[in-house]
Each structure stands twice: as C-alpha cells, then as structure tokens.
Amino acid sequence: xxxxxxxxxxxxxxxxxxxxxxxxxxxxxxxxxxxxxxxxxxxxxxxxxxxxxxxxxxxxxxxxxxxxxxxxxxxxxxxxxxxxxxxxxxxxxxxxxxxxxxxxxxxxxxxxxxxxxxxxxxxxxxxxxxxxxxxxxxxxxxxxxxxxxxxxxxxxxxxxxxxxxxxxxxxxxxxxxxxxxxxxxxxxxxxxxxxxxxxxxxxxxxxxxxxxxxxxxxxxxxxxxxxxxxxxxxxxx
Length: 237
Known about the structure:
Layout: H1 5-16, H2 25-33, H3 39-44, H4 56-84, E1 89-90, E2 93-94, H5 95-114, H6 128-141, H7 145-154, E3 155-158, E4 161-164, H8 177-203, H9 205-236
Antiparallel strand pairs: 1-2, 3-4
Helix pairs in contact: 4-5, 4-8, 4-9, 5-8, 5-9, 6-7, 6-8, 6-9, 8-9
C-alpha cells in the first residue's frame, strides 16, 4: 500500500500547516549557534550559511545532538503509544505515523539549515519548493536511491548556500512521483509497527513500552545519520 502524489501533498499540507512543524531558519540558527558565534557573526546568519563561521566538525557535533534528541523524542512517543495500547488519529493520520512524520520534518529542516540550505519558507509560507525539499530529504533519509540522485542533481549554489531548482512536484509525470510512493510505503511500515507494539501494550504494558522505545531508536537513528552525511557532503561539493 502506498500514497499517491496528491495524497502525499495533502499529508505535507497537514503537517507543514501546523506551526509546530515549521522552523524559521534565522531564529533557529541564532538560538542554536549562540554559544559558538560572536554577535556580529550571528547577525550575518541572515545571509550567510553556518559553515562560513564554523568548522564541519562543530556542525557535525551540533547535528549529532539534534539527531539524538529527536530519536529520543520518537522513542518516548512510541513508548507512550504502547502504554495506552491504542492507535489514535491526528487529523486523520495514525498516531505512530504522525509522530514520525512531524519529528522527521522538524529534523530535516534543522539539518538542512546547519549544512547551508536557505529558508524552507517564502515569507513564512509553504511553497512547492518547500514540499519538494522535504520530499527529497525524507526520501534520502529513508534510503531511497532515486531521492539521493534527485537531491544531488537539483542542488545548486546560491549566495554560498544551497537551494533547489523549481520542478514539477505532483502528478504521474513528476520525476519525484516514484520517490513519494517509496516514502509512503516505508512510513506506513513504521505506522504498522506501531500497531503491533500497541497490541502488545494492551497485553503487557511494560513490555510494550520497551519494544516501542527500542524499535524507534534502532529504526530511526541510522536513517537520520544517513541524511546528515548526505547534506554534509552536498555542502562540501
């Protein structure tokens, strides 16, 4: 089972339409990099990427901290779902899928901003490019080779940062249609995993908590590291 391109587009609209899933580039970088940069350097983040001021080693350290944080959040989310032993819905999305999707979208933005991408939003608005970026990066994170290729081919330099060339986003002729199908399949697998864990949680809550947290950690962290490495490499090309 997989989502169509239009269904994926609606799912992103639901996620990105929520303020909790959007990250303002300048605000987040300023808050995160405050311990590492001078006031003058922080002010320049509006037009300059972080690697103008920080080494790759420092950026990797910050990225690893964010990856660990979001992995733990996902594990706690799964644990909570297991303890209640039910699959609720979040605006029509299974709880497990919502937990993964929102956290992944948040971390995608953070990693992209750390490694030199400009703001995902146009004056705070979600655009076609916003959705394309999320799709490319989530696909790469989930190990979809076509997403890697599309992300690399679409990358271009822009004021020392990275952006992507606008391209068809939805529809049968879209070059990322196959990526969307593969993403939805893999996210639905994660959602199904949550259903199994929840069933165990009804029978034995403590076992369900352990399985939920451990499985989230094992499934998610390698994928997040994979995206970090790709974005770092794109920054250095």
